[in-house]
Specification:
Strand order of the largest sheet: 2-1-4-3
Low-confidence stretches: none
Number of strands: 7
Number of domains: 2
Distance between the termini: 70 Å
Keywords: Membrane, Transmembrane, Transmembrane helix
Order of helices and strands: HHHHEEHEEHHHEEE
Radius of gyration: 23 Å
Mean pLDDT: 86
Number of helices: 8
Protein name: Type IV pilin accessory protein
Strand content: 15-25%
């Protein structure tokens, strides 16, 4: 293996790692603040994207770069490789970005995640007069609004921000988690004066922690085998 091929390979590998590191930072700290990246298994898609991006570019470089080629041919090869790698990265990121949690909405005793792809672009850009946690809205839907919405609209009521309401203690306390049944690490962190509600994700479940003033202060992952109904009370 000639030295030019090795040099190009390592340069491309280092650049790819730096780019992937930046992408991972954006996904974990901006698009999917903890624990949302674990709740819906987004980290798995991110790992696939990272693996493909780190492998694709440097591997193609290793195959195509050759000291027998002219400078023009080498530049053309690298241009094609970079375009392929960038296209794969942009496509993967566009799919992952659509999975960003935009709101968590309470209905029928539990919270549900609403992602960017679940609502229209105009609704996504509209600023709502609702509280936020880590720049994610949290709200509730009342049964009476569901009935009215079902009669007038074809879209799912969960994906209709026009009927989102500020949460109330009366609604949130319905079917709240039993403090005694919460995992020990949550009990060690929070006293029983807090209100705990379930949030079901695609891969993991979580407990939302509200203070007595109904401010959402934390979202804590539950053990992987836990189901929200197994630790809820019958309030």
């Amino acid at each position: 293996m000639n030295s030019l091929k090795i040099r190009y390979f390592y340069r491309h590998l280092i650049i790819s790692i730096l780019i992937v590191g930046s992408v991972t930072y954006i996904c974990q700290l901006i698009w999917f603040p903890s624990p949302f990246i674990e709740l819906d298994g987004t980290w798995r898609a991110l790992l696939v994207l990272i693996g493909v991006d780190i492998t694709l570019g440097p591997l193609l470089t290793l195959i195509l770069v050759n000291s027998s080629k002219s400078k023009f041919e080498l530049r053309l090869d690298m241009l094609v490789i970079v375009l392929l790698q960038a296209s794969a990265l942009i496509f993967g990121l566009s799919k992952i970005e659509q999975e960003r949690v935009w709101a968590i909405v309470h209905y029928d005793g539990a919270f549900h995640s609403i992602t960017k792809k679940d609502i229209s672009e105009s609704e996504y850009k509209t600023k709502l007069n609702l509280p936020q946690f880590q720049k994610i809205y949290f709200a509730m839907i009342l049964e009476k609004d569901v009935n009215n919405h079902t009669k007038q609209e074809s879209t799912s009521f969960l994906f209709s921000p026009t009927i989102y309401k500020n949460i109330t203690k009366e609604e949130i306390e319905k079917q709240s988690f039993s403090y005694d049944n919460l995992p020990e690490y949550i009990q060690n962190k929070y006293q029983n004066k807090y209100i705990f509600k379930g949030l079901a994700g695609k891969k993991r479940n979580a407990a939302l922690v509200f203070n007595p003033n109904m401010k959402l202060i934390d979202i804590v992952l539950l053990p992987e085998q836990s189901e929200p109904e197994n630790i809820s009370s019958n309030n």
